[in-house]
Structures are given as C-alpha cells and as structure tokens.
Design brief:
single chain; mainly alpha; 2 domains; 10 helices
C-alpha cells in the first residue's frame, strides 16, 4: 500500500469544505464545530505521531508504551468527569475503575491468547482502540443520566416520599439512561458487515490478510469495544443515578439545576 501524502490528505478535506459550505448556506450553525474538530484532530494526531515515533524508537519502548496506556486511561477518565456538568460523588473513581479494568481485560485477552504479538506498537493500538471507544459512550451515559434525573426529579422526590431508598431510585432511573447511552454502539454493532466495514478488518484486508482471519480479528476487536462501552456505561450511569439522592434521602441539588 502506498504511503498517503499530504496532498492526498488535503484532498480528503474536500467533503469537509463542502459540508461547511452547505452548513453556512443553509444556516445550520455546525460549520464552526466542524472546522474546530478538523483542526484539533490534525494537531492532536501530529503530536501523537511525533510522540509515538520517539516511543517506538526508544531503547525503553516497553516502559514508555505502558506509560502511554496509563496516560490514555487517565485522560479518558478525566474527559468523562469534565463532561459531567456538576461534581458527582465517586464518578472519577467509578469511571477510572471501569476504563482501567476494561483496558486490562482487553490487553489480557488479546495478548494472553496470542491473537497479536506482544510488542509495544500492538499494546498501544489495542489499548487505544478500547479506551478510545469507551469515552463517547461513557460521556453520553453521564449526560443522559443527569438529564434523566433532572427531567424526572418530581418522580424521584415522589418515590422518596413513598419510602424509596437510594438503590430503589437508581434502579428506577438507570435503565432508560443506559439504553439511551448504548443505542448508538448497539446499532453500529448490528449493521457491521452489512452497511459498514470496520477499520480493523479493512486494514487487514488491505494488508493482504485472509478474509476469514481478518473477520476473526475484527470480531475480537468489536466485542472488546462493545463490552468496554457497556461496562463504562453501567458504571457511569450507576454513579450518577446514585448521586441523585443525598445521604439523608433527598433529591440532590444538581437535579434541580437547569442544564447549561
């Protein structure tokens, strides 16, 4: 496969420019975010590319690879906590345990069963795939569960008045928030292979790997991503819905605060 040059990368922006033009023409208001996202992605990926080049060429590549994995997990946890509009008790701890635990299981399965050779590059890639895909679901879980608690604060207070405990309230609020947070990931999993060819499988096919082997690797990656997203959603939704009720069984103050 030929190495993609910068002119090709710039040419690929044509669709982005078209979308920005259409948004501006129709006054949709999404052009600014698209430009910011495109520029930010380029800066971040270039910075990561420079860091990876230094890591993988280092005599201590293993050490720095593991440092990077830990950094990714910490950064993912911070993103989830920051996206929550108010301070939620134990959210950082719960989200961190979910992210770190899911990444550890993914790494153990992938390398422990010999799916990939255990080397610094593969370690960073597998951790990045699982952690990176966990973040959007976890962030959506935080937002959905907070919105759900705000929208139904009257139901929460009514339940508490009838004798609901904190656990009862969480069980009442959590299912709808979890389903809303997981719907995108579940639907994407349902249509894989029919409507979309996922990245790992596409890369292996382009590299000349046997299609059945490529499918097996993609299934592994897909299930790890789905499981990681689900674990993080469950953890975050549980933390937020439990925090909707105070220790003295009242609706938390943030449930009465309008979303910013």
């Amino acid at each position: 496969m030929n190495v993609v040059g910068w002119p090709v990368v710039l040419a690929s922006l044509s669709l982005v420019f078209l979308a920005v033009g259409l948004s501006r023409w129709l006054r949709l208001g999404i052009e600014r975010e698209m430009v910011i996202a495109s520029v930010r992605a380029a800066v971040q990926l270039l910075a990561v590319g420079v860091v990876f080049a230094a890591i993988f060429r280092s005599d201590q590549a293993w050490l720095w690879s593991w440092v990077w994995v830990v950094f990714m997990a910490l950064a993912a946890t911070r993103v989830v906590v920051r996206r929550a509009e108010h301070t939620i008790a134990n959210l950082a701890l719960v989200a961190g345990l979910a992210v770190f635990g899911s990444a550890a299981i993914s790494i153990a399965i992938t390398f422990g069963l010999g799916v990939l050779d255990y080397d610094p590059v593969s370690l960073v890639v597998i951790a990045g795939i699982t952690v990176g895909n966990a973040v959007p679901s976890a962030v959506l879980a935080a937002k959905q569960s907070m919105t759900m608690c705000r929208d139904h604060v009257g139901d929460v207070e009514a339940g508490l008045a009838l004798g609901f405990t904190r656990r009862d309230t969480a069980r009442f609020m959590a299912p709808r928030a979890a389903k809303a947070a997981m719907i995108t990931r579940i639907e994407r999993t349902k249509v894989v292979g029919l409507i979309a060819l996922p990245g790992a499988m596409t890369g292996l096919l382009l590299a000349g790997i046997d299609p059945i082997d490529a499918v097996a690797v993609q299934l592994l990656v897909m299930y790890l991503i789905l499981g990681t997203a689900a674990v993080c959603v469950v953890a975050v939704v549980s933390a937020v819905t439990n925090a909707a009720v105070t220790d003295d069984l009242r609706a938390a103050e943030w449930t009465r605060t309008p979303a910013s």
